Amino acid sequence: MDKIFEKALEGLEKEIGQDKLMNLATRNEEGVSARTVNIYTYEGCFYFVTEADSNKYEQICKNNSVALSIDAIQIRGNGTLLSHPLSDSNKQIIGYVQSGLPQHFDRYKDASAMRLIKITPSYASFLSMETGNGYVIDYKKQTAMPIEHQM
């Protein structure tokens, strides 16, 4: 893996961390919708939990192109609808998140309508608000380009 690409991925993960509130944009026949979700990171992808009967769940079901943003972070990618957050198929992801956020998913034990959504990124750009340094990342080509902004 390219060293700059690897450094960019590490920088983005550091900027987002775990349990980051971000804006999620989805599209339907009427246009684009945006709302805030709690993002968790795992193995280069981003995850959040929602209800199976929510607008965002239905919109991703029909059109899986999504975007995430906050501050100077922008991510585009594809959403994948997964099962209940505490199901066996999500055990590895949730176990990883809970190692840093113990008992964070306990509230979903009795909420059968909850679903985990995975976002596989295709593009990202970010700047550190502290340093003004960042990257533009192309996940498909596995390349990254450093960017700088005078803060």
Secondary-structure topology with pairs:
Layout: H1 3-16, E1 20-28, E2 31-42, E3 45-51, H2 55-62, E4 65-70, E5 73-81, H3 91-100, E6 114-127, E7 133-138, E8 143-148
> What percent of residues adopt helix (DSSP H or I)?
10-25%
- Structural class based on helices, strands and sheet pairing: alpha+beta
The dominant shape is globular
Calculate the terminal CA-CA distance, rounded to whole Å: 30 Å
Radius of gyration: 16 Å
Helix-strand pattern:
HEEEHEEHEEE
Point out poorly predicted stretches.
Answer: none
Which band does the percent of strand residues land in? over 45%
Average pLDDT for all residues: 91
Q: What oligomeric state best describes the polypeptide chains here?
A: single chain
Strand order in the sheet with the most strands: 1-2-3-6-5-4
Largest sheet: 6 strands, antiparallel, barrel
